[in-house]
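Troubleshooting: if your tokenizer reports a length mismatch, compare your output against this known-good record of 302 residues.
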Amino acid sequence: MKTKPGYKKREERIGWIFANIPFFGFAIFGLIPLILSVFLSFNHFKGLRLNSATFVGFDNFKTIFEDELFWQSINNTLFVVVATIISLILSIIISALLATEVKGSKGFKVIYFVPYVCSLVAITFMWKWIYDYNYGVLNATLIEWGLIKEKINWLGSEEYFRTAMMILLIWSSMGFNIILLTASLTSIDRNLYEASSIDGANGIRQFFTITLPMVSPTIFYLLITGLIGSLQSFTIFQVMAKDGGPGQKGLTVVFYLYKKLFNASGGSDLGVASAIGWIVALLIAIVTIINFIGQKKWVNYD
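Known-good structure output:
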């Protein structure tokens, strides 16, 4: 049965419309905002009014680089990167132990994964109560065990704020890492371990010569996504210390952007905030490119 030419053309048009829906979504929510942000970063605005744009060239970037708080935020963000790397290393070790079918391993997997499925804001509030100077369970426990004599102001002192945040960052990010790494470990051919045992390899040697190379693609993926997430870290710090923390130790780059955009004193500037956004994007691009170049030397896809 022959189809009418008009019907076929209409069918093709409908097909093109459905096929281009993802492109339209990207154009509306990705491409247009991207182009707009370039325009914003080279202009100065009075508050959040777009009709007050005044072209200033690279002055917004100059203002950012001359601001000491910006470099403080870079330093704080690098601290988050360190916490992410430590979390990944601990996740590899714990995953290797859980993969040995130790008693209760399934229960431990659930316990480690719980932080990932919970709201990040709720988790941060929970830790905020744990660290509370007057009523926090952490101080009470440490005093009860005789580890400290006086309460520690975890969130109010520069000395302990970063330690408190390090614990939170590592704890909250390990669950997802462990689940993926454990799944990757279970796919390793057990014959490799048996053959290496016959050759006299012990557990440590097997870990470095078999386990790590076999799960290196998963480690690489977690490293890339973890570093990108670290450079974009905001929620935990904004909830834990909305003013930036003691000595601005909790002011990450994205938090710095947020404070510039929504300045309580009325000095909000879309141009400066957009410029910071492009700096963050450039940092992410550089880190990603370096990792993809370096992965050729240590990631095993065989």
